Structures are given as structure tokens and as C-alpha cells.
Design the sequence.
């Protein structure tokens, strides 16, 4: 158990609405990441954080923003959800600053 | 930029036999790490094994071993004595500059995965 939880685990929303996904860790790790998983693409990095209030973009960051006001929480926000953002979202943390361990995932459906 | 290629969309193996899942990579970094993850049908991503580019010996973790051939840029996963519970999607991933500190050096780039089915 990597001590990572994600909420909600499932969400259905409508196009144009804001959505926030939460990643919570209990082990005080510095590095946290958000990925999305789509068929045929594997996992792709959206944003990552290397400390409180320190974040940077990944390869598919358009349409997403993140915030990290506490070590244990990393929030991913879709300001105005689109159908192309229907995906499974995974949060990850780094232990020993190398290996990444993943949360259980959030399934998001944008209608 | 890093790239991972997994050329086998699907593989079948008989229970108790060994299977090799292929992974080739492309990177311009001198130092990097290679990872394998397992994703069963339940959806979670499970870390299996790690190989550093400067590690002289191939990594092993129980029934998993990584056949690392640096000159050929390949990092194949070998599962010995396959079990029914090994049926899952397997992803290879690369992470640049693991010896350095700093946010961007820890990004994982994944391949598209190989679906392994273990037959009884």
C-alpha cells in the first residue's frame, strides 16, 4: 500500500463544467504527479509537483491546472471539461525520488 | 525526448512457462532508469521492477527479471513460471537523469503496453 488515495473514484460530468480531482498521500513525499490513461496512448504526464506550491507542466497539460498548498494534497482541475478529457486519471508519488507509485485512479466521463 | 516502444500488443503463455515481453527505448540521456508496471483488469498500476542505466547487473525481483541490453537499447521483462494472476497489461517506462535532482528529471514516459494472457 503506497498510502495514496484519489477522490472521487468515478465521476460523470457535463461539457463546460469545472471538475477537481484530489490526490492525497500519507507519507510526506515531495514529488507528486498526475497522468491520464487513454486507449492506445499508455499513460501520459499532465502536471507534476516537486514541492508545496512548486509545479510544472507535463506533455498534455492544455486544459488542466494544478495546485499544491499542502505536502499531502495535489489537486488537478479541469476548468471547463471537454469530451476529450474523458479518461482515467492516475496520481503518483515518488519514493526515494526515483520509483513512482500510483494511486487507484479516477474514471472521468465528460458528456 | 524519450520514447518507449512495445511491439507486442498481445501475448499468450501457458501457465508455468516463462514469457518475455519486449521493450525498446530511445533516449539521448546518459543516465536514465527503466521501469515495468503491471495493470490488472481491476485497473491499478503496480510497480514491478527497476533498472538503472549504470547498473552492471540485470535487475531481478522474485519471478521478474529485466534483460537489459544497453547497446541495443532494450529492456525486456522476463516472467518465469507464469501464473494465472499474471494475466494483465504490462507497461515499460523510462525516466531520464535519475541521478540528478530536480522536478523535470522524474517524468516517466510510458509505452503503449502489452496485454499478457496466461492460459491454464
Sequence:
Amino acid at each position: 500500500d503506497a498510502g495514496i488515495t484519489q477522490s472521487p473514484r468515478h465521476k460523470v460530468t457535463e461539457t463546460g463544467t469545472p471538475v477537481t480531482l484530489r490526490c492525497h498521500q500519507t507519507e510526506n513525499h515531495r514529488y507528486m504527479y498526475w497522468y491520464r490513461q487513454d486507449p492506445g496512448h499508455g499513460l501520459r504526464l499532465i502536471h507534476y509537483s516537486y514541492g508545496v506550491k512548486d509545479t510544472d507542466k507535463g506533455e498534455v497539460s492544455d486544459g488542466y491546472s494544478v495546485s499544491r498548498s499542502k505536502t499531502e494534497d495535489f489537486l488537478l482541475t479541469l476548468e471547463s471539461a471537454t469530451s476529450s478529457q474523458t479518461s482515467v486519471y492516475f496520481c503518483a508519488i515518488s519514493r526515494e525520488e526515483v520509483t513512482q507509485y500510483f494511486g487507484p485512479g479516477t474514471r472521468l466521463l465528460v458528456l | 525526448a524519450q520514447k518507449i516502444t512495445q511491439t507486442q500488443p498481445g501475448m499468450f503463455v501457458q501457465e508455468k512457462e516463462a514469457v518475455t515481453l519486449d521493450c525498446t527505448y530511445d533516449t539521448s540521456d546518459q543516465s536514465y532508469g527503466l521501469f515495468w508496471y503491471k495493470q490488472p483488469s481491476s485497473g491499478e498500476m503496480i510497480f514491478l521492477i527497476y533498472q538503472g542505466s549504470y547498473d552492471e547487473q540485470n535487475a531481478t525481483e522474485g519471478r521478474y527479471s529485466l534483460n537489459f541490453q544497453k547497446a541495443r537499447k532494450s529492456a525486456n521483462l522476463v516472467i518465469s513460471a507464469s501464473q494465472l494472476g499474471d494475466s494483465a497489461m504490462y507497461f515499460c517506462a523510462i525516466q531520464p537523469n535519475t541521478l540528478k535532482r530536480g522536478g523535470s528529471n522524474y517524468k516517466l514516459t510510458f509505452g503503449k503496453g502489452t496485454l499478457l494472457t496466461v492460459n491454464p
Remarks:
- Chain A is about 0% helix and 60% strand.
